[in-house]
Every structure is written in C-alpha cells, then in structure tokens.
User: What shape does this take?
Amino acid sequence: MATEAVTLKLTARQAEALRALAALEELPPEVYAAEVLVKHLYHAYTPQVAARAAGLPPAGPA
Assistant: This one.
C-alpha cells in the first residue's frame, strides 16, 4: 500500500480538540488525526465522487 505524508494546519482550538480526543482514545494526536481522516475519506469517496473527479457523467439509478 502506498503512503503519503500530509501536513495539517490547525487552529489553536482544533489542535486542542485533537489532543483531547486523542488522549481519550489513548493514541498520539498524529495517529488519531490519521485515523479520523482515513475514516472520513473512506465514507466520502463514493463511486459518484470518483466518477465526477474523473470527469465522467454521474451514474443514474439502477
């Protein structure tokens, strides 16, 4: 599996929330942030989004 480094720019409040939520899960903030991002991308990247990104017309209902 290919990996790619990502840098996040967070506001002070976002960073505070990230640290607090990561602590609740007993994870380093970097790991928690990566897990949240991956889960979001997994659910957001639907076949319709992929088709739109590829410049294809959206598929109609089957």
About this structure: The longest helix spans residues 29-44. DSSP finds three helices and no strands in the chain. Residues 6 and 34 are 9 Å apart (CA to CA).
